[in-house]
Write the structure tokens for this entry.
Amino acid sequence: MADFDLFVIGAGSGGVRASRVAAAYGARVAIAEEYKVGGTCVIRGCVPKKLLVYGAHFAEDLDDAAMFGWNVPQKTFDWTVLRDNVLAEVSRLEGAYTETLKSHDVTIFHERATVTGPNSIRLASGKEVTADKILIATGARPVMPHIDGIEHAISSNEVFHLDKLPKRIVIAGGGYIANEFAGIFHQFGTHVTLVNRTDVILRHYDQQIVDRLIQISLRKGIDFKFHATIDRVRREDDGRLHIAMTGCDNLEADQLLFAIGRKPNTEGLGLEAIGVELGEHGKLKVDEDNRTSVPSIFAVGDVTDRVQLTPVAIREGQAFADTFFGKKQCRVDYGSIPSAVFSHPPLAGVGLTEGHARNTIGPVKIFTSDFRPMKNVLAGRNERSLYKLVVDAESEVVVGIHMIGPDAPAILQAAAIAVKAKLKKSEIDATLALHPTMAEELVLMR
Ligand code: NDP
């Protein structure tokens, strides 16, 4: 008999969920983690990022407070206070995740594990263990380009640990991380330049919503360099970074952050040697049951590069555990996944964008609400929100909802139910408004 029923490599969102649920079904489970329990989302992703977003938002809130009668003495910001409080919260969560595993009797190995056979694993300490099933949940890591001076640049791993706030930051990329940190640093008072290889940012979001973000960001003072690439980086004697560019003038900055995508962590795990098939960019190829080409080895989360989002990894981990340890066949439904960018202001979307809908389903009806939130009006903040419904013209079913504005991600989470449930526009219209809210705009579009 094998030492364990299940051995999980990687204690991130997907790995922890699979371990905990399989153990709850009675499986003997072990998990190996070479860094910190919690993975990207908890340790250096969604959670600390969202806390920085909250911290950053005070810059505007404190400005706006005056029109609401508050006398705020001159505001000052101390990066080290926020950084240390965020890192302390991350440590607390790491402890909570570890406790959850322990309370489910999951054996934790705080070291790197490699696969040596379809049912065998070697730990960094040299210990060999066997398992009936192996689950790879090693996540992904930031892509860094091979350019001269790349050692002077940082990724989203390091951005949470900066000694001091840069006066000027250049951010390469036009995706989630680039736009979220552009907003965060700008609010902290850093001059932000976002460099993108094309003129399309946030490629998979609705164009009209993204255009609104660019318009607001430009007005705030964020600089965009489109059709531009970074050739090399040099650190000057005084600490400044000199960034040689193609497509625009060379840039100077105190920090350079690369946010150009994330690559699955499959190297050095021993997978290819035992015949596990990898796809492009090193992703682990799996079937609908998360099984790799070796029948006893499975994978969930970012390492499979299906949809790199935490709730998806969690669903995959849960489905894997239900199917193979709970005897409840379960597959993840990848349709209509809501997602959000925690930019300033945030944007969010679910279902088909207008462009995608026109290309795939044909005639569509578009309903928009372009409004200035009540709070912005009194504050004198000239920043408009935009909500958009994409409706299949023939069936009247709402196939997409897209929005930018305060609290858009939280509002969209509820609205996503309508798209998932394939509700018709008339059913949304029949819902009474909850007044006065921003969300009521969703049911008032005619
Ligand atoms: P994204 O995939 O979001 O964006 C990558 C950006 O970099 C795109 O603009 C892309 O351009 C550009 N790019 C890609 N390759 C290169 C290159 N070689 N040189 C220059 N530019 C390049 O990646 P992120 O790093 O921002 O985030 C990684 C993943 O993490 C996301 O896909 C997302 O799944 C997840 N994430 C989710 C968050 C959330 O849910 N709020 C927050 C943060 C991360 P192009 O469009 O032309 O390919």
